[in-house]
Amino acid sequence: MNVSSYNRREKGISHIKPDEWMKLADILEVHLDEIYEHDARYHIDCKDQSIGINHGTQKVYTVPKALLDSQQKYIEMLEARIKKLEED
Q1: pLDDT tens-digit profile of 29-87?
Q2: Where are the domains of the chain?
């Protein structure tokens, strides 16, 4: 890894990828759990939950609020464009 890439990760500008965490643990000769830092900005939880009498599955997602806000703004922009096209 070059110095610039390392510096961005150290400052939190760029996130450490899962394979990089594993390499770090190997180099430091420690278990991954001892050094791994969870970054909620890059994580989406997905859980299957059994529901109802048919034992179907319902997917439950936990999405970071910043991502939801960004997508909401994009949806609003698209809705405005559609409205304008319909008016024209």
Answers
A1: 888 888 876 665 555 555 555 554 445 555 556 667 777 788 889 999 999 999 999 99
A2: 3-63
Contact 15, 39 (CB under 8 A): yes
At 1 the three-state DSSP class reads: coil
Rounded-to-integer distance, Cα 58 and Cα 51, Å: 7
Q: Could you tell me which of 40, 24, 42 has the C-alpha nearest to residue 32?
A: 24
State the pLDDT at residue 54.
Answer: 46
Q: How is residue 28 written in tokens?
A: 């430091």
Cβ–Cβ under 8 Å, residues 59 and 47: yes
pTM: 0.39
Q: What is the DSSP string of 8-72?
A: HHHHTSSPPPHHHHHHHHHHHTS-HHHH----GGG--EEEEEEETTTTEEEEEEE--HHHHHHHH
